[in-house]
Design brief:
Blueprint lengths: L2 E3 L2 E4 L2 E3 L1 H30 L2 H34 L1 H25 L6 H22 L2 H4 L4 H17 L3 H7 L6 H15 L4
Antiparallel strand pairs: 1-2, 2-3
Length: about 200
């Protein structure tokens, strides 16, 4: 049960300060923007409008670059004591997949026109990213469990990422320490082990 006290919302298991609310609101707006870009991409693929799809793919990379950066470099490590190392690794692996999907989307939208197969593949890639947007937005119920000082650190990291404004694929290839290839190699070999004897 929540109750107001000293301008903040007191929770049974934590305190939601103005800093918490600011981060939640800013992050929610970012997720809405990415959601709308992704839904716009689906519409562009359905219409086979390659110019619109190309523009939206670039917008996706511009929006996701700073967002992924502050999440991975600051938000996820500070959440690890709350959600655990396995969940943080899951979140980072979802980023790995989104980066690879953005690369594929860039290849598809670089074509002069979209055929039926390209449009279908583009929609499939976009719909693979969409669930991460909603899952990540819900993460702020866990952010309530970390301190105001830690939230201020996240907000500062966000401001710095926005100021540098490095797009997703540039960040992934030039700055990000984690390699997205590791996720795909692990998944490939794990799938081969699990599927042995099934074709």
């Amino acid at each position: 049960m929540a109750k107001k006290a000293n301008g903040a919302t007191q929770m049974a298991s934590g305190t939601v300060t103005p800093a918490h609310e600011r981060l939640r609101n800013l992050s929610h707006e970012e997720h809405r923007e990415v959601r709308d870009i992704l839904l716009g991409l689906i519409a562009a693929f359905e219409a086979r409008d390659v110019k619109s799809a190309r523009k939206l793919q670039k917008e996706l990379c511009i929006h996701a670059g700073p967002h992924f950066r502050y999440e991975e470099e600051t938000l996820h490590p500070l959440l690890q004591p709350v959600v655990g190392k396995v969940q943080v690794e899951h979140l980072n692996r979802e980023h790995d997949r989104a980066i690879v999907d953005a690369i594929y989307l860039g290849k598809i939208t670089a074509e002069k026109k979209l055929g039926e197969d390209e449009a279908r593949q583009g929609k499939r890639l976009v719909r693979r990213i969409l669930p991460h947007v909603s899952d990540c937005d819900g993460l702020h119920v866990m952010v309530e469990m970390i301190s105001e000082a830690e939230v201020e650190t996240i907000l500062a990291a966000r401001e710095n990422a926005l100021k540098e404004n490095i797009s997703l694929l540039d960040w992934a290839s030039k700055i990000r320490e984690r390699s997205f290839r590791d996720t795909y190699q692990r998944d490939y070999y794990a799938t081969r082990r699990q599927a042995r004897g099934y074709g």
